From TrEMBL:
KW Membrane (keyword) present: no
SUPFAM superfamilies: P-loop containing nucleoside triphosphate hydrolases
Regions annotated as coiled coil: 324-351
Pfam families: ABC_tran (PF00005)
Keywords (A to Z) from UniProt: ATP-binding, Coiled coil, Nucleotide-binding
InterPro entries named in the record: AAA+_ATPase, ABC_transporter-like_ATP-bd, ABC_transporter-like_CS, ABCF_ATPase, P-loop_NTPase
Organism: Solicola gregarius
Protein name, per record: ATP-binding cassette domain-containing protein
């Protein structure tokens, strides 16, 4: 469902080139699905918890080394606002988060924080966990919240009494995230969460955020994640501005393509820090992916008619048991191949940026 949606949402121009079968499948999947969250209600909750003032950047200048990252930026974040923050590597996204969390001070202007504001910054480096401690003992705070969170984060049964040192990397990461959420912040800053959280943890986090009444700022290159958890997207621009993207993330990608690629700005910049996302596919990879999409489409069309044929034969031989069994087997194989190809098609479309 997550994939289908991500795929379907890639804007009307791309949609027309999408094979009919995907659109029908996706439409039927999302038909009865309510929107992931109730925006107005969450904002009301957030206002009750946070008051009207959350974090305001006022005429902020920020220079790191010899680079001006922000130049006279005024940006007000309201209660329950859910913001995606995008921009090329090295432009200053993480620095903006660190300004908001108070880890960095502006060179000019000020960062105003509301009185009840409690910010947590999920950066790539989280506090270390004691390897000898058991999962259950590593979790402090409200018992009820803790047990609910442990369960929805998949810490049940034996895992609860496992020592942290025996957890997998993904499980440790998930526990760190859980511990951060248990502190019940009302402003949450996520810095490229899709880089280092596994899919399972991301799913849990997405669901958790659906009814989380706080202000959320997410730095990410992952369109799907941004679409899923935020309501509005801003971009950090060369020249030190922060601008709202009226057309959201798809408008930004179109604009970047127009400007010659998402990585155009970086070319002039020093190498990004080790914590940056890997760069996108090369032009050759995109071409390959487009070709693959065409090939897969053709194969899928053939499989679709093969599947129809098999269905017809099955109806005709409804009383011949052995024949029917054989046809069923064939159909299952065709079905499996279709599914695998559809997966491949999605991956190719991802690479091709469609
Ligand atoms: N402590 C620092 N001293 C000097 N330059 C820094 C420091 N921290 C980050 N930078 C530089 O500031 C720029 C913005 O970094 P960052 O905010 O991490 O960008 P982003 O998160 O958008 O990739 C980068 O060019 C980086 O090299
Ligand atoms: Mg960064």
């Amino acid at each position: 469902m997550r994939k289908e949606l991500a795929w379907l949402r890639r804007g009307p121009p791309a949609r027309s080139s999408k094979p009919r079968f995907r659109i029908d499948a996706a439409n039927s999947l999302i038909e009865d699905e309510p929107p992931p969250r109730n925006r107005l209600e969450l904002e009301r909750f957030a206002t009750a918890r946070l008051g009207k003032d959350v974090v305001d950047l006022e005429h902020v200048d920020l220079t790191l080394g010899s680079r001006t990252l922000l130049d006279d930026v005024t940006w007000r974040l309201g209660p329950g606002e859910r913001v995606g923050l995008v921009g090329p590597n090295g432009i200053g996204k993480s620095s903006v988060l660190r300004l908001i969390s108070g880890d960095l001070q502006p060179d000019a202007g000020r960062v105003k924080r509301g009185r009840t504001v409690d910010v947590r910054y999920l950066s790539q480096t989280l506090g270390e966990l004691e390897p000898g401690v058991r999962v259950l003992d590593s979790v402090r705070g409200n018992e009820l919240t803790a047990s609910k969170l442990l369960e929805s984060f998949g810490f049940t049964g034996d895992l609860l009494t496992s020592r942290i040192g025996d957890l997998s990397g993904g499980e440790r990461r998930r526990l760190q995230l859980l511990r951060l959420l248990l502190e019940e912040p009302n402003v949450l800053l996520l810095d490229e969460p899709t880089n280092d959280l596994d899919i399972e943890t991301l799913n849990v986090l997405e669901d958790y955020l659906d009814d989380w009444p706080g202000t959320l700022i997410v730095v990410s290159h992952d369109r799907y994640f941004l679409d899923r958890v935020t309501d509005v997207v801003y971009a950090v621009r060369a020249g030190g501005r922060i601008e709202m993207l009226v057309q959201g993330i798809s408008g930004y990608h179109a604009e970047q393509r127009f400007l010659g690629g998402v990585h155009a700005v970086e070319a002039a910049e020093p190498a990004p820090a080790a914590d940056e996302a890997p760069s996108g596919p090369s032009a050759a990879e995109v071409r390959e992916a487009r070709k693959a999409m065409g090939r897969i489409d053709r194969r899928l069309t053939r499989l679709a008619s093969r599947s129809e044929e098999l269905h017809e034969q099955m109806i005709e031989s409804a009383t011949q048991y052995e024949c029917l069994a054989q046809l069923q087997e064939d159909l299952a194989r065709v079905q499996a191949e279709r599914e695998a190809l559809e997966e491949e098609w999605l991956e190719a479309a991802e690479t091709a940026g469609e």
